[in-house]
Design brief:
The structure holds two protein chains of two kinds. By secondary structure, chain A is an all-beta fold. Chain A has no helices and twelve strands. In chain A, the strands form three sheets. In chain A, strands 2, 5, 6, 10, 11 and 12 form a six-stranded mixed β-sheet that branches. The chains are: A mainly beta, B mainly beta. At the A-B interface, β6 of A face β5 and β10 of B.
Chain lengths: ~110, ~120
């Protein structure tokens, strides 16, 4: 069946550091791929998405590219801020959405 | 503005009691979902619905039930609460199943403690 694997956290970085959170997937079809973010005490909200191979999703300085050849959708940001501290979920969808287990990110000032 | 709300936000109950968590959305979305979030497990799907009178089991449906009598609401019932059901519960909705338009919109969550 379909599945999502993302790097375990927590990930701790200093402000202005470069961020990569790895995500790989297994799917039989051609799913859409998502990154969701969960800030403390809140529900998940969509950060970015890509619907076909080689698409790049971007939002708030974050980017991820749908790589069919490596079945990956890694999240990157060039310069993180303290306000980016949150839990990040990679997800795929063909019929229902399947979420990874989440990666907690701590940004130190 | 359209939104999705959950109530209560916090609930403490005792083992064996029936508990109902409410979820209400004003987007007129066809699809609604219930998840539980536990440390080390991420989000796990409990039940989902693709429209009025439609309900389906997710991966962790034992001990839970839902009913969909209108588009806006999908209440989640714990028939006989157990300590293993202590968790944070999230409701979500989306406009269409499949394809590129299946972004889900999440409620703020309900923290349930079963003593």
């Amino acid at each position: 069946g379909n599945s999502v694997t993302q790097m375990e956290g927590p990930v701790t970085l200093s402000e202005e550091a470069f961020l990569t959170i790895n995500c790989t997937y297994t799917a039989t079809g051609y799913p859409s791929l998502f990154w969701y973010v969960q800030y403390p005490g809140e529900g998940l909200q969509l950060l970015l998405k890509a619907t076909k191979a080689d698409d790049k999703g971007s939002n708030k300085g974050f980017e991820a590219t749908y790589r069919k050849e490596t079945t990956s959708f890694h999240l990157e940001k060039g310069s993180v801020q303290v306000s980016d501290s949150a839990v990040y979920f990679c997800a795929l969808s063909d019929d229902k959405i399947i979420f990874g287990k989440g990666t907690r990110l701590h940004i130190l000032p | 503005d359209a939104e999705i709300t959950q109530s209560p936000r916090h609930k403490i109950t005792e083992t064996g009691r029936q508990v109902t968590l409410a979820c209400h959305q004003t987007w007129n979305h066809n699809n609604m979902f219930w998840y539980r979030q536990d440390l080390g497990h991420g989000l796990r799907l409990i039940h989902y619905s693709y429209g009025v009178q439609d309900t389906n089991k997710g991966e962790v449906s034992d001990g839970y039930s839902v009913s969909r009598s209108n588009t806006e609401d999908l209440p989640l019932t714990l028939e006989s609460a157990a300590s293993s059901q202590t968790s944070v519960y999230f409701c979500a909705s989306s406009p269409l199943a499949g394809g590129a338009y299946n972004e889900q919109f999440f409620g703020p969550g309900t923290r349930l403690t079963v003593l």
